[in-house]
Amino acid sequence: xxLKITCxxxxxxxxxxxxxxxxxxxxxRKQVPxxxxxxxxxxxxxxxxxxxxxGCDVRIERLFVLRKKDIWKNVxxxxxxxxxxxxxxGRTIAKSDFVYVNTAVVADYYIAARAYRDRVVGHVRExxxxxxxxxxxxxxxxxxxxxxxxxxxxxxxxxxxxxRQIAVVYNGTxxxxxRTPTDxxxxxxxxxxxxxxxxxxxxxxxxxxxxxxxxxHALDKVNVRLVGDAFEGQPFGESLRxxxxxxxxxxxxxxxxxDADPTQHFTWADVVVxxxxxxxxxxxxxxxxxxxxxxxxxxAHGGLAxxxxxxxxxWHFEPNNAHSLASAIMDALLNPALVxxxxxxxxxxxxxLFTSEAMEESFWHAIEPKLRKAxxx
Length: 377
What we know:
The chain is an alpha/beta fold. 42% of the residues lie in helices and 16% in strands.
């Protein structure tokens, strides 16, 4: 009898959580090659092709996703559609032997999973705050499913979900073929890269604010590249462009659309900046930077505080503090030897903890017991 595996994801692009989801689906494909794998996502998008390349049946279905901006609408006016989504999710879980739900916000599957908790695993990849944290934590508590988290910071944030042990599975990626240290020696401008979705959370505006705090002579010796797109209909990108236009003449800040293969950007950079205003659950961009032998300037909260070790693989700065960020940039600008040294240390840390092989071993160890139980039943 063919094992039926269903994987559910709330995204459809190729940002960090999307790529991590593809990796986890690939691990399931590799470890249980004879299984029938169905992937459910809410919309068609770039994620479909790599999933189909893994031999998955990709289905587009409307999901009941608890996004912060729509959370109260979903639980009031959107309630009838939410109930239909829960019904669909329950039918899907009932027909599956094993269900992997990516992120904590796919509410319909966690609600429906309560009746089938032994065959469902949820992978938590967010650090919510306030009422959202309370709502999602109680949702996971209600579901009773097994949980994975992408960092100890994420697991701690979801301790509200009950006394169950949450397995920590660090994200991983493959090292690039070419990973030589930066050649920054202080004679040319320091190249800073910020790669990620254009929104207030990712902190592009904080980086621009920090740049304006640099002395004029230092500002002329820094080049910045922002890579990413704003979410559908969001005006944040235009706000950034207006800020850039107001920066002193001679200062170079470029904006580049999202790139599914960011290799050229990492090889261009000397230092990667991750100035997230809210705690990152993990910080995939940071480990990708390490894989390219690039050090990281990171906001010292959430998973980033675990991934990036201050004074060793990069710099920490006080979250949401532009002066602290500017100070870290100045330290990198004035100390080329540190930039190279910390990039090499980051690469070493990457090879120890954050390779795709390390992720595969950790992920499979965490979910194998449930899958084996499904195989026996």
